[in-house]
Amino acid sequence: MLQKNIASSSLSFGDPILTAVHRALGEIQGNRPFALTGEDGVRFVLALDGSDDHQMAAFVDGFCGGEADLVISGVRARMMKLTPESDDGAVLTPVTSISAGGPDMARVMEIATALKPDAVPSFTPAGRTAGTAVDLAKLAQRIPACLVSRPVEPTDDDETLITVRTEDVEVFRARLAATLKPVSEARVPIADGIASRFVIFRNAIGGIATAVIVGEPDATAPLPVRVHSSCATGDIFGSRRCDCGEQLQLGLHRLEELGGGCLIYLDQEGRGLGLANKMHAYTLQDQGLDTVDANMVLGFHDDERDYHAAGFMLKRLGWERITLLTNNPTKLTGLAAAGIEISDRLPVVTKANADNRRYLETKARRAGHLLGTAGLLETV
Ligand SMILES: Nc1nc2c(ncn2[C@@H]2O[C@H](COP(=O)(O)OP(=O)(O)OP(=O)(O)O)[C@@H](O)[C@H]2O)c(=O)[nH]1
């Protein structure tokens, strides 16, 4: 049978950088090891989140000769006071083979994720290659913690592993956003008599984003726009823990009242952490942490979103000047960075309830959301 290696083929099957990172993300989703090449050589990587004890032990013994490193994000290290110096760089600590009497893998997981781990080892700066492993875990919406081998020289054997370069990971998000293309559209009447057209965009690795065009927007004025991050709990199930579901409805109604506009619905569940990690964050909130600290104990930044995709979609639809419906200053700067001119901002403030009051207060106090006091004082 004729065999071809697509990665090294001169035939063009898409952007090789996106392909390499997409494949590495597939390995993380499947809890399989892969190789990361950087300035200090090759490191084999296994993401912790989703891997079981057997896989972790097999990785440390089989890929790392019994001596690996546990790498966690700098954000978690800082939150848990694991390093004296506190910058944002990832940090690592040695992990020895369980068969040689090293720590068991449940303990490794505890060090990487628990709110109050028992005695923790000392960590040192991880460097760029091991740090990139953590970034990849985040891109796969897994807890940012990985087992990595010590740097090795590349060998022919490594070619059978999925391999990605650190520099490819660093440009991945922005490059991927620029591949979004409209693939289908249709009229969708929404509750309360709102007329809309859904335009579905797809990127080069199959990710979906939606533009909901409400009414018949005035082409000569700045377009009223709501950029909304997905929230399965709030948008679909009406969770009272957040304001997302109500903001979605309020946003659509405001766009209609303004004579038409566009709601960009982005696949950014849990501020980009993903649904599983949002639930981990909720568990930490139920133990007393606020939303910001909960995300950071898990090793994420408070907010992992960026707005390249929204900017790209708006431009693709022919709108570069907008009025943005948001309370979140980061969306204003994020869209401006994506090349969108924001001529005005309109608030989207809902009334607080007993379950989301602390969430809203934290948004205002720690993330600078422009909520005023009206929404927080009025409780439903
Ligand atoms: N990590 C985390 N994410 C949450 C929590 N509560 C809600 N979210 C997510 O936060 C995001 C809120 O999205 P938006 O409503 O578009 O944005 P916003 O940052 O509130 O800004 P505006 O609504 O535009 O003012 C959604 O992705 C939710 O899933 C939480 O407790 N933890």
Automatic annotation (TrEMBL):
InterPro entries found in the cross-reference section: GTP_cyclohydro_II, RibA, RibA-like_sf
Q: Does the entry feature the keyword ATP-binding, yes or no? A: no
Q: Per its UniProt entry, which superkingdom is the organism in?
A: Bacteria
The UniProt entry's GO biological process terms, in alphabetical order, are: riboflavin biosynthetic process
For activity, the cofactor(s) needed are: Zn(2+)
Look up keyword Nucleus and say if it applies. no
Q: What does this chain do?
A: Catalyzes the conversion of GTP to 2,5-diamino-6-ribosylamino-4(3H)-pyrimidinone 5'-phosphate (DARP), formate and pyrophosphate.
Q: What is this protein called?
A: GTP cyclohydrolase-2
Species assigned in the record: Breoghania corrubedonensis
Q: Which gene encodes it?
A: ribA
